[in-house]
Specification:
Elements: H1 3-29, H2 55-63, E1 67-71, H3 76-81, E2 84-87, H4 97-109, E3 114-118, H5 124-131, H6 141-160, E4 170-173, E5 179-180, E6 185-186, H7 188-191, E7 202-203, E8 206-209, E9 214-219, E10 222-230, E11 233-238, H8 252-263, E12 271-275, H9 305-323, H10 341-355, H11 358-374
Parallel strand pairs: 1-12, 2-3, 2-12, 3-11
Antiparallel strand pairs: 4-8, 5-7, 6-9, 9-10, 10-11
Length: about 375
């Protein structure tokens, strides 16, 4: 069996999921409805169908035999549980020195650990509107142009309002020109089986390797992926997510490159944690206090709470089906007992009340009492 066939077999499940995610986006979004574009999340409201989500990539890790869950903070629990951290920060600024120090200490604490950092400088929502342009009907053309302009403006403003600063992990080369990637060079393992002419990767800002980092994949001198050793662990820096997010992974060559990335952590089963953070990066906690646990919808992204709540929900649904619906013929209520004298008194009292004559009612009661005493 050739390496190409093995790749096809290993990626087949994820390919189906990627195509299904894309089809869902096409059916849900259209040109008039809002497109799901939440960035860098694998689960939760709007994340699984988001063009900017990471669900497809996380499924590829699972298909490779790894355990996957999401986390939102740098805490002792993450430090103990994770063998590999995959971080798609929703922030155009580089990670802070404090976050870098925490993650570097985590890398050096145990052998074989991997941190995969994916730069933010890409937006699949804009990419989506550009790609569907030729398929838009004449009636929806103006709406499509409006959506495309809005997506381009939003992306440009987010880039401009964030200062491009260097990090200890990479240097930022402030090229504003966007260009497509159609050539590849670098590590032969990364290049094996990839057809660069079919890629749809794009570069906006550029990263330069920092420190002892080595470029393992580049295009015409622009870095795409670099690798750096920390103790007995490794840091993988990817310039942006244009071949790793949900929508770009519809492209088969992108899925093969994502497979190369997954192979860098090894073939043994590992616990892979998708670190999810917004502007400013993830908070750093000294301990995992209950008050620090996610609340609301976020708690469904955290393992093992999400699995516990899922099972409780299933049990609750089964209980409702057992307890409340009536299946088959309706059952009648318990028949009234004719020997209950109290019901007779209630009925007589109700009749006397309806007469509206208090004196008449009192006379009836007196006659009844007199008669029972005589008998």
């Amino acid at each position: 069996m050739t390496a190409g066939h093995r790749d096809m077999m290993r990626l087949s499940t994820s390919a189906i999921r990627a195509i299904a995610a894309m089809a869902t986006c096409l059916m849900i979004a259209g040109c008039g409805d809002r497109l799901d574009d939440v960035y860098g999340r694998r689960a939760g409201l709007g994340a699984e169908t988001s063009v900017n989500g990471t669900r497809v990539l996380s499924d590829m890790f699972e298909d490779s035999g790894h355990n996957v869950f999401s986390w939102t903070r740098l805490s002792p629990y993450l430090g103990k549980r994770a063998d590999c951290i995959v971080w798609f920060p929703d922030d155009f600024a580089p990670p802070s020195a404090e976050v870098c120090d925490w993650l570097e200490a985590w890398l050096e604490a145990e052998p074989g650990r991997t941190l995969i950092y994916v730069g933010r400088d890409f937006d699949a929502a804009r990419w989506y509107w550009e790609k569907i342009g030729p398929e838009v009907s004449s009636e929806q053309r103006e709406t499509h142009k409006k959506q495309l302009r809005q997506a381009r403006t939003d992306f440009a403003l987010q880039r401009l309002k964030t200062a491009k600063e260097d990090s200890s992990w990479f240097c930022v080369e402030n090229k504003l020109s966007t260009r497509p990637v159609r050539t590849l060079s670098g590590d032969p393992h990364w290049l094996d089986g990839i057809d660069p002419s079919k890629l749809e990767i794009e570069l906006n800002g550029r990263f330069l390797p920092a420190g002892r980092a080595k470029v393992v994949l580049e295009s015409d001198g622009d870095m795409l992926v670099s690798r750096r050793e920390f103790g007995r662990g490794q840091l993988i820096v990817v310039t942006n997510g244009s071949f790793l997010l949900n929508l770009p992974l519809v492209n088969h060559e992108h899925r093969k490159l994502a497979g190369k990335l997954i192979e860098t952590i090894g073939t043994e089963e590992q616990t892979v944690v998708f670190l999810e953070s917004r502007a400013g990066g993830p908070p750093i906690l000294e301990e995992d206090a209950m008050s620090g646990m996610p609340t609301g919808v976020e708690i469904f992204n955290v393992w093992p709470t999400n699995w516990i709540l899922l099972h409780l929900a299933v049990v609750g649904i089964l209980f409702c089906f057992w307890r409340f619906p009536i299946f088959g013929l309706a059952r009648g209520g318990e028949p009234a007992r004719l020997s209950d004298f109290g019901k007779h008194l209630d009925a007589v009292g109700e009749l006397l009340k309806q007469s509206g004559d208090e004196a008449f009612a009192r006379d009836c009661v007196k006659q009844y009492v007199r008669k029972t005493k005589t008998d």
